[in-house]
Amino acid sequence: MKIINLKYLILLIYLISSNYSYSIERPENKNLIIHKDMKKIENIDFINSNGKKISISKYSNSAIILNFWATWCAPCRKEMPLLDKLKSTKAFKDTEILAINIAEESYEKSKSFFDELKIKNLEVFLGSGREIASKLKIRGLPTTILINKKGYEFARIVGYIDFEDKSFLDWLIKNL
48-71 pLDDT, tens per residue? Predict the structure, then answer.
């Protein structure tokens, strides 16, 4: 009888400890999708602020936060200043943060949006909405794709996320 009680006690401790460690490893955010099978991100092109075509491969060997947005997107308006602030933090100084407008809007309109929101640390990038949405299976805006240093998408955020949320940032630093 004592052996059976001991087994139940050990099982209970195991269940409690595994749930506790799981909650530390994954932030509580319904918009965060963590992939079991990572996908190589390649053949994605976009335009920089000088009108030059840039390939995602330019950033190989770097962790990348790839954010897709539009000027008409209300959650994008809320999220962009947080993303801009993230770019200036020491913990993310070696992470490329690329904010790409995929709404087929002009550079001037996109730059005006950045100026209005006082975005100082991010560069305006433009991309073909149809092409990028098709290649990366983007279903809404904002969408943020998290890419590790080997060029693999390990997670994505569909919709708004608070880039100041400590548990999310701790998880992100650990996984980039």
Answer: 999 999 999 999 999 999 999 999
The whole-angstrom separation of Cα 98 and Cα 48 is 10
Residues 97, 65 contacting (CB under 8 angstroms): yes
Q: Please, what are the domains in the chain?
A: 27-175 (3.40.30.10)
pTM of the model as a whole: 0.84
* Angle formed at CA 138 by CA 137 and CA 143, multiple of 5 degrees: 140
Sign, Cα dihedral of 19, 24, 28, 29: negative
DSSP 34-84: EEEEEEE--S-EEE-TTS-EEEGGGGTTS-EEEEEE-TT-HHHHHHHHHHH
Report the distance separating Cα 152 and Cα 26, nearest Å: 19
CB neighbours of 101 closer than 8 A, spacing ≥ 6? 68, 69, 70, 71, 110, 113, 124, 125, 126, 127
For residues 47 and 54, the answer to whether their CB atoms sit within 8 Å is: yes
Dihedral sign of CA atoms 79, 61, 128, 114 in order: positive
> pLDDT for 78-96, tens place per residue?
999 999 999 999 999 999 9
